[in-house]
Every structure is written in structure tokens, then in C-alpha cells.
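Work Package 4 report. The design task specified in the project plan requires that, given a folded chain encoded as C-alpha cells, an amino acid be chosen for each position. We show below one input record used in the internal validation round.
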């Protein structure tokens, strides 16, 4: 089961759309929803600076490519 629950409140804190690697698809919140169906150009990852990443004690990066972190 993914560690991050998907809700409007949590989605509002998501910084994926501002990430240089963001593939431009919706919805974002890859740490909760899973990887992007689009090809991702892995430039850099902003996950470690995201309040969701810190708040849920996440450890991975590039959730848009790798999918969710299981708890």
C-alpha cells in the first residue's frame, strides 16, 4: 500500500508541476498515485524539498519514474 494517501489537501502541497523532470501530465502526486504514464526526462528531482516527502518520511526520488514507496 502506498505510504502517501491521495487527497485534495495533500495534492495541494505537491511540488511535482514545478519540477524540471515533470512530464506535463496530470494528475501529479506520483509518490501517492504511482509513476507517470508519460516518458520522463530525468533532469533533476525536487522530491527531497517537498513538504509531502518530509512529512511522510519518504526516502526515494523520481516517483514519476519509479512509482510509489510501499509502506
Amino acid at each position: 500500500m502506498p505510504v502517501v494517501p491521495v487527497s485534495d489537501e495533500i495534492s495541494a502541497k505537491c511540488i511535482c508541476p514545478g519540477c524540471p523532470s515533470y512530464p506535463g501530465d496530470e494528475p501529479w502526486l506520483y509518490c501517492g498515485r504511482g509513476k507517470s504514464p508519460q516518458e520522463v526526462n530525468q533532469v533533476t528531482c525536487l522530491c527531497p524539498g517537498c513538504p509531502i516527502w518530509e512529512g511522510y518520511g519518504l526516502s526515494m526520488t523520481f516517483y514519476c519514474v519509479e512509482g510509489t514507496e510501499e509502506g
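The chain has a mean pLDDT of 94. Validation will be extended to a larger panel in the next phase.
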